[in-house]
Structures are given as structure tokens and as C-alpha cells.
């Protein structure tokens, strides 16, 4: 059955995707600890950064310039955190959107989470 959901198409869609995802993160004890207690993230800065990150990845806008992996190097995160991150990310997209871009976005998140996690595991082994 075809629902009435649309694909991710506009900058506003990205804002909605990011805001609602981090609202979920903030309700998750395991993840909220890392963002709010450990990193004391300034959400007014982090959310716009994530809008431009996803804009760059999805629409090729090139507004995000940064080193996303470096931001995670010193975080107390392991495999279970990445799984915890990916589940609400995917659920959130499925709830709001439907289409090729939505599928591509979930795939990108999964690939990046996999790369982050394997790099962290590898680097921590050498310590
Ligand atoms: C274990 C799961 C994750 C946790 C706990 C986590 C946590 C964080 C934290 C605490 C920051 C720093 C925010 C700040 O101080 O401003 C950050 C930045 C960031 N994260 Fe994650 N993250 C996770 C997974 C991911 C994944 C899978 C992606 C990509 C799909 C991602 C993309 C980013 C980006 C782009 C930044 C901004 C980096 C910059 O400063 O340029 N994160 N994350």
C-alpha cells in the first residue's frame, strides 16, 4: 500500500529529520549521557551543523566542512551506542518520509556508523 508520505526533498525536510532525531536521542538514556553529560553539547550549534552535514551528503550542497570522525574519537562509545543511534535514526526517517532519498539517507548513516565504529575499535586496540 502506498502511503501519503513524501521523500526527503527540501532543506525544511532535513531540519525536521534532524530535530526530531535529536529529540529522540535526548529521550534515550545511553545516548543522552554522551551528548549532554559527557560532551555537554551546545544544541544551538550542533543542530545547524547537522543540517549542513546532511544537506551536503544528501543534496551535495557542500556547506559542511569538517572532520566528523574526529568529533567522535574521544567519546565513550562502542558498538551498542552505534546500534542505539541507528535504530531511532531509521525509525524516524520511516515515520516521516518514503522514497529513494530516504532509503539512501539510512544507507549513508549505516555506512558512516560502521566506519566510525570500526575505526574506533581499531584505534582503541592499539592503545
Ligand atoms: C554512537 C553514536 C554517536 C554519538 C554518541 C555521537 C555523538 C556526537 C557528539 C557528542 C558530537 C559533538 C557535538 C558537539 O560537541 O558539538 C558529535 C558530532 C557529530 N556527529 Fe556524532 N555521534 C554518534 C554517531 C554519529 C553518526 C553515525 C554520524 C553520521 C552519520 C554522526 C555525525 C556527526 C557529525 C557530522 C558531527 C559534527 C562534527 C563536527 O564538529 O564537524 N555522529 N556526535
Task: Please provide a brief summary of the model.
The chain is mainly α. The chain has helices at 11-26, 29-38, 43-59, 79-96, 100-126. Residues 31, 34-35, 39, 41, 45-46, 49, 53, 66, 68, 71-72, 75, 77, 81-82, 85, 109, 112-113, 116 line the site of protoporphyrin IX containing FE.
Helix and strand arrangement:
Elements: H1 11-26, H2 29-38, H3 43-59, H4 79-96, H5 100-126
Helix pairs in contact: 1-3, 1-4, 4-5
The protein binds protoporphyrin IX containing FE.
What are the main properties of this structure?
Globin-like, 127 residues, mainly alpha, 5 helices, binds protoporphyrin IX containing FE, single chain, 0% strand
Describe this structure in words.
This protein is mostly helical and 127 residues long. The chain has a single domain, classed as Globins (Globin-like, Orthogonal Bundle), CATH 1.10.490.10. Helices cover 69% and strands 0% of the residues. It is built from five helices and no strands. The longest helix has 27 residues, at 100-126. The chain is globular and about 50 Å long. The mean pLDDT is 95. Bound molecules: protoporphyrin IX containing FE (HEM).
Amino acid at each position: 500500500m502506498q502511503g501519503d508520505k513524501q521523500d526527503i526533498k527540501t532543506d525544511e525536510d532535513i531540519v525536521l529529520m534532524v530535530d526530531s532525531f535529536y529529540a529522540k536521542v535526548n529521550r534515550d538514556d545511553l545516548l543522552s549521557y554522551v551528548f549532554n553529560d559527557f560532551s555537554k553539547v551546545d544544541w544551538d550549534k550542533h543542530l545547524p551543523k547537522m543540517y549542513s552535514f546532511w544537506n551536503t551528503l544528501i543534496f551535495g550542497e557542500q556547506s559542511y566542512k569538517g572532520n566528523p570522525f574526529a568529533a567522535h574519537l574521544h567519546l565513550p562509545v562502542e558498538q551498542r551506542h552505534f546500534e542505539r543511534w541507528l535504530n531511532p535514526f531509521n525509525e524516524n526517517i520511516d515515520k516521516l518520509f518514503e522514497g529513494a532519498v530516504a532509503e539512501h539517507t539510512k544507507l549513508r548513516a549505516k555506512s558512516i556508523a560502521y566506519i566510525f565504529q570500526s575505526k574506533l575499535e581499531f584505534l582503541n586496540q592499539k592503545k
